[in-house]
């Protein structure tokens, strides 16, 4: 169940990052409220995951999945560039996440 909590926390983390962009510096009400809800959801589910998972595994995975999701959705939804350097960096992050997952058992 902890891994499901962690995956949910990561989804909230991606939504939080997008919400910050859409809020335009917290000047738009609904995106700002969305951002607040998603940050609480992300930290809440991460906290539930940490009841079982080691912080040395869960927190880096949470941030990495959040980063990868933000890069992908920044490209898909916001029209941000997806350069070769970004792709190589994303692959490196995925390798690190896989290593952390394997090390956790």
Explained architecture:
The structure is a single chain. This protein is mostly helical. The protein has one domain. Helix content is 84%, strand content 0%. It contains four helices and no strands. Helix 1 runs antiparallel to helix 2. The longest helix is centred in the middle third of the chain and has 24 residues. The radius of gyration is 14 Å and the shape is flat. The relative contact order is 0.16. The model has no long low-confidence stretch (mean pLDDT 94). InterPro entries: EmrE-like, Small_drug/metabolite_transptr, Small_multidrug_res. This is Guanidinium exporter. It is found in: Cell membrane. One of its GO terms (biological process) is xenobiotic detoxification by transmembrane export across the plasma membrane. Keywords: Cell membrane, Membrane, Transmembrane, Transmembrane helix, Transport.
Give the topology:
Elements: H1 2-22, H2 29-50, H3 55-78, H4 84-104
Helix pairs in contact: 1-2, 1-3, 3-4
């Amino acid at each position: 169940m902890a891994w499901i909590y962690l995956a949910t926390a990561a989804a909230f983390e991606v939504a939080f990052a997008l919400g910050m962009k859409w809020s335009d510096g917290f000047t738009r009400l609904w995106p700002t409220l969305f951002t607040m809800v998603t940050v609480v959801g992300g930290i809440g589910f991460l906290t539930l995951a940490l009841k079982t998972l080691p912080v040395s595994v869960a927190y880096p995975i949470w941030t990495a999945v959040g980063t990868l999701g933000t890069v992908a959705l920044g490209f898909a939804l916001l029209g941000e560039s997806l350069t070769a350097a970004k792709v190589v960096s994303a692959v490196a992050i995925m390798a690190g996440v896989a290593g952390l997952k394997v090390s956790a058992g």
